[in-house]
From TrEMBL:
SUPFAM superfamilies: alpha/beta-Hydrolases
Identification of the protein by name: Alpha/beta hydrolase
Top-level taxon: Bacteria
Keyword Transmembrane: yes
MF terms (GO), sorted A to Z: hydrolase activity
TM region(s), chain numbering: 17-36
Pfam families (UniProt xref): Abhydrolase_6 (PF12697)
Organism: Actinomadura vinacea
Keywords: Hydrolase, Membrane, Transmembrane, Transmembrane helix
Lineage summary: Bacteria, Bacillati, Actinomycetota, Actinomycetes, Streptosporangiales
Length: 330
């Protein structure tokens, strides 16, 4: 009996090894297929269901916004850009242009608009290449391209110059515009901007990796979004649901933002207001403050000590008041 069992063992081991080898080959084929595939050169939805899921979340979040006076789709060399115009209570001739953060689109400004409309007319823009109602049609491959599409949008609006306000990656986008195409930028307001005065901390970058994998559970993306918002719950919050859906259902094809750098920042001529969150996880607030105060020619720096990266929703009245004082002074 022992001889029979011993004789049977080698074939069993061979079968196991064969299964393991086949499994490795299958994985290798899948990896190779992904490596050799020709991915889309522009941002795109995972499919019709994913697009519908995001648009339902977008429309629900937009319900918390005031009704826009005008909805505009602006043709650029890189695609159509969705903009909304809101009529303000002031006769200020240069309107605000609000640029949202990553995957958040126009509805991220719902808490801010009632206060900002007291300062004048407001445009909100869905960033091109991000989930939203803008539609990317051509590759965006550089910071110069990022500035070009936004400059083309502003050039087609009826006003000649604007007070450009950017949140998070929108802050980088606004600064990048001011560096490369400043002709329409009257003033620049940066609300806890990413990649502008200092880089994203390593810990945050690591935590963002699983949140960017669409097939992982929703709870992982919610966890990351809560982390950036200082631990605040994000479940059943319309804007947070929209952001999570965009992270899950939309594939970005944008160049990785690079730190603006002290040289370009130091060459900015327009007045700049930097509002930094003391508890932000998207940059080192101490380093950012030092850089902003040292290099900006005409800069004003405000620190909100207890604010997280979700600073615009946590302190909408304070942001509006600081922006009003900044605009009046300039």
């Amino acid at each position: 009996m022992d001889d029979v069992e011993q004789a049977a063992q080698p074939p069993a081991k061979k079968r196991r090894m064969l299964k393991i080898t086949v499994g490795i080959l299958v994985v290798a084929v899948v990896v190779l297929a992904f490596a050799l595939r020709r991915p889309s050169a522009v941002g795109h939805w995972s499919g019709a269901a994913g697009h519908a899921d995001f648009m339902a979340a977008y429309d629900k979040a937009m319900a918390d916004m005031p009704k826009p006076a005008q909805t505009i789709d602006v043709r650029t060399g890189f695609g159509f850009v969705r903009a909304y115009r809101y009529e303000g209570a002031s006769d200020r001739t240069e309107p605000l242009v609000l640029l949202p953060g990553r995957a958040s689109a126009s509805p991220v400004w719902a808490d801010n608009l009632p206060h900002l409309l007291k300062l004048g007319d407001v445009y909100t823009i869905d960033l091109l290449g991000e989930p939203g109602k803008s539609v990317q049609e051509a590759p965006i491959t550089s910071a110069t391209d990022q500035a070009a599409w936004l400059d083309q949008v502003l050039a087609q609006l009826p006003e000649k110059s604007f007070h450009v306000v950017g949140l998070s990656i929108g802050g980088w986008t606004a600064t990048n515009l001011a560096v490369h195409k400043p002709r329409h930028v009257a003033t620049l307001t940066l609300i806890d901007p990413a990649y502008t005065f200092s880089n994203i901390p390593v810990g945050t970058a690591i935590r963002a990796i699983p949140a960017s994998v669409p097939w992982l559970p929703k709870s992982w993306r919610d966890s990351f979004n809560s982390y950036t918002a200082g631990g605040a719950p994000v479940e059943d919050v319309p804007v947070a649901d929209m952001i999570e859906s965009g992270m899950k259902n939309y594939t970005l094809r944008l160049p990785q933002p690079k730190l603006i750098g002290e040289g370009p920042l130091g060459r900015l001529k327009m007045p700049v207001l930097a509002i930094l969150a003391g508890k932000s996880v998207m940059h080192d607030v101490g380093d950012s403050r030092k850089v902003a105060e040292r290099v900006l020619q005409n800069g004003t720096v405000k620190i909100y000590p207890n604010a997280s990266h979700a600073i615009n929703g946590e302190h909408p009245q304070e942001v509006a008041a600081d922006l009003a004082a900044f605009l009046d002074a300039n």
